[in-house]
């Protein structure tokens, strides 16, 4: 009994010490008032970033470039902690400065931004997401539950609003690229501006399962559909339209644009690509045996391999010429550069006088 009591007391002591360690300051901010960033808050944010593969890959790639070699595990962990802490310090400095200068974010502004995110999810799903579905998307993309996401979004939007308040004139000074700028970039990258041979097609597919009986039944239905179509493109459209009927047994629709490149060969298979690129506009294919079903294809558009000029459409089926694409790209690059400059200027100004303190000894865990 006494031994058990000592074990329980030991566990309680360990938990208590761990909790106390989490409450220790990793840093304190003191622009308009003293505000701690606790070790627990830092650990939570570091763990969240570690759970996001894309963010970690970007961080490690940047660290490797800075060091000129691959960092050790200990080095990457230490640098990640200091990197995240720097971000948290900058955010707290801006938020305190916004409070000092009476720059606020309203609930309406926050809700409008969340509704924009929700609309984007609805567009992907083809319908409005439920609250549970939307929360799951947020969790998958940010690693945050809905309440934490709202808090983090509020902070980010306030930071952006204050940045515009202080540096709006600089940010708005970005100029559209001139025709000479666009032409210079076009000449620099024209060897890359090549549109591969491309087709657009409609596909009728009869899917099958893993068993032989399913495959045999799917082949029999495909044979009947193929005999009905023959080589008549209009009959193909009639058969494709019937796929929407209940229990039709097959699917059909516009397959989109297929470029003749390695990626398409890898994902669609050599047989599919060879058959499709052997057809002219309006022609119907033979039966193709795919990985998950039998297919009959009709090519609706053909595009030859072409080295693009400035006024050519960059991609079939999409708006925008090469000229417009280059102009938008150059403008976005300039915006990013000015935004980075404005952000750095603001952070430098707010850090002047060292209105914060970092507790290095508390960053070891």
Task: Compose a concise summary of this entry.
59% of the residues lie in helices and 14% in strands. It is of the alpha+beta class and 365 residues long.
Describe this structure in words.
The longest helix has 30 residues, at 322-351. This protein has helices spanning 2-23, 39-50, 53-67, 73-100, 107-125, 131-142, 146-171, 179-189, 212-229, 233-241, 262-268, 270-276, 322-351; strands at 25-30, 34-38, 194-195, 198-207, 251-259, 288-289, 293-303, 306-307, 356-358. It has a 4-stranded antiparallel β-sheet with strand order 5-4-7-6, with helices on both faces. Strands 2-1-9 form a 3-stranded antiparallel β-sheet. A two-stranded antiparallel sheet has the order 3-8. Mean pLDDT is 92; it is low at 5-18. The chain has 13 helices and 9 strands. Helix content is 59%, strand content 14%.
What's the topology here?
Elements: H1 2-23, E1 25-30, E2 34-38, H2 39-50, H3 53-67, H4 73-100, H5 107-125, H6 131-142, H7 146-171, H8 179-189, E3 194-195, E4 198-207, H9 212-229, H10 233-241, E5 251-259, H11 262-268, H12 270-276, E6 288-289, E7 293-303, E8 306-307, H13 322-351, E9 356-358
Antiparallel strand pairs: 1-2, 1-9, 3-8, 4-5, 4-7, 6-7
Helix pairs in contact: 1-2, 2-4, 4-7, 4-13, 7-13, 8-13, 11-12
């Amino acid at each position: 009994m006494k031994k058990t009591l000592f074990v329980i007391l030991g566990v309680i002591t360990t938990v208590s010490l761990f909790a106390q360690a989490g409450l220790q300051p990793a840093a304190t901010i003191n622009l308009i008032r003293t505000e701690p960033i606790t070790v627990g808050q830092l650990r939570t944010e570091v763990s969240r970033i570690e759970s996001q593969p894309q963010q970690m890959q970007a961080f490690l790639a940047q660290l490797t470039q800075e060091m000129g070699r691959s960092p050790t595990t200990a080095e990457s962990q230490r640098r990640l902690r200091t990197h995240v802490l720097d971000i948290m310090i900058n955010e707290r400095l801006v938020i305190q400065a916004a409070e000092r200068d009476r720059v606020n974010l309203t609930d309406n502004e926050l809700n409008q931004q969340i509704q924009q995110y929700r609309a984007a999810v609805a567009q992907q799903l083809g319908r409005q997401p439920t609250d549970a579905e939307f929360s799951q998307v947020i969790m998958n993309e940010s690693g945050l539950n809905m309440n934490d996401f709202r808090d983090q979004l509020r902070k980010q939007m306030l930071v952006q609003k204050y940045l515009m308040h202080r540096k709006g004139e600089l940010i708005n000074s970005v100029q559209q690229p001139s025709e000479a700028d666009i032409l210079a970039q076009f000449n620099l990258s024209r060897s890359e501006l090549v549109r591969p041979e491309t087709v657009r097609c409609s596909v009728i597919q009869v899917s099958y399962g893993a068993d032989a009986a399913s495959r045999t039944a799917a082949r029999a239905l495909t044979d009947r559909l193929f005999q009905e179509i023959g080589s008549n493109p209009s009959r193909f459209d009639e058969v494709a339209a019937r796929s929407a009927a209940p229990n039709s047994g097959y699917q059909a629709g516009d397959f989109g644009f297929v470029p003749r490149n390695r990626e398409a060969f890898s994902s669609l298979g050599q047989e599919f690509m060879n058959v499709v690129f052997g057809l002219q506009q309006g022609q119907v294919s033979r039966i193709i045996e795919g990985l998950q079903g039998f297919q009959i294809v009709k090519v609706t558009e053909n595009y030859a391999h072409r080295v693009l000029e400035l006024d050519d459409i960059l991609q079939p089926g999409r708006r925008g010429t090469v000229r417009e694409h280059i102009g938008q790209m150059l403008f976005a690059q300039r915006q990013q550069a000015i935004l980075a400059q404005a952000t750095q200027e603001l952070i430098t100004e707010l850090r002047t006088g060292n209105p914060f303190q970092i507790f290095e000894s508390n960053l070891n865990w």
